[in-house]
Amino acid sequence: MMNAKPMIIAIASTIILAVAALPDSALAKSDMSDGAAIKIAAVKIHKGVGTVKKIKKRSGKIRLDHGPIKSIGWMGMVMTFDVENKKLLKGVKVGDKVSFGFYATDDGRHVITEIKRLK
Ligand SMILES: [Cu+2]
């Protein structure tokens, strides 16, 4: 009889490597409980430039006045983003000009994965 477990693990690692190799994408979900369900999605990272209007360190939110972002069909606007990791808020303050990357979630949030001060 064949033991299927090593095979499943091998397939899962291959998928993770394939997703990691995609440009401009991030690993959103990886659920391998039981070895039965393998649910992995690559998400699109959109890039924008804007000015910091407000920072909420505790809740991990940042309000930006951003320019147009064609990849998601947006005009410029002022809006609040979530940050994937609160550490991202450490290097920025209100009034800073920043470039940033984010993805959109199924439940309507926009989550920043990278943010950089512009000089
Ligand atoms: Cu917007």
Please tell me about this protein's structure:
This protein has one helix and seven strands; from the N terminus they run αβββββββ. The chain has two domains: 5-43, no CATH class; 45-117, Copper binding periplasmic protein CusF (OB fold (Dihydrolipoamide Acetyltransferase, E2P)). Mean pLDDT is 80; it is low at 7-32. It has a five-stranded mixed barrel with strand order 3-4-5-7-6. It has a two-stranded antiparallel ribbon with strand order 1-2. 14% of the residues lie in helices and 45% in strands. By secondary structure, it is mostly beta strands. Bound molecules: copper (II) ion. Residues 66, 74, 77, 79 line the site of copper (II) ion.
List keywords for this structure.
about 120 residues, OB fold (Dihydrolipoamide Acetyltransferase, E2P), 2 domains, five-stranded mixed β-barrel, globular, binds copper (II) ion
